[in-house]
Amino acid sequence: MSLKFWESVAKFDEVLKKFNKIHSLTNYKDIKPVALDSIEPIKFLGFEPRVCVDVGSGAGFPAIFLAMILRECEFHLYEPIAKKSSFLSYAALNLNLQNITVHSGKIENCDKIKADLITSRALMNTADLIKICQGFYDEETTFLLYKGSNAKFEIEELKCDKQIYCQNERNYVILKGVK
After folding, report:
1. Radius of gyration, alpha carbons of the chain
2. pLDDT for the residue 22
3. What are residue 53's DSSP bridge partners?
4. Which of 37, 66, 145, 166 would bridge 173 by S-S if both were Cys, CB 3.0 to 4.6 A apart?
5. Model confidence at 21, in pLDDT bands (50, 70, 90)?
6. Contact 134, 127 (CB under 8 A)
């Protein structure tokens, strides 16, 4: 990773710690492993998305870190909890990430846009996630899901192309051709 990326991560860490004192967004003490976890899938994603939708963005993982690297991609972060969506907007502004738009609301209640890539980190069961993303994807869209140990069981019934890349305790689930 470039020095510029790690400088941005350090700046993000400062903003997060400042916000965290008041709003308690996350309990991570060291942001570097979170950043590495967030960007790991770039190695095997196989394409550069133009439009990415991140569902349940929370404190910005993985979307903020992906947006730092995939500068040509338009990122849409969906977060219904006001303090978290406010933080995401503040962080994007402070990091000068002009490729991020924050949507304060549940994805299923928002205007639909077509995404090349849909990401989510440990938000909900995969089938339920796909359901709430209706209208945001077509058969060309790739889902990139950051999952734990139940990943294999969550996707076995899905009728689409699926792959799991495992690293440490993380399962990166890639779904293609979701109908």
Report:
1. 15
2. 85
3. 76, 118
4. 145
5. confident
6. no
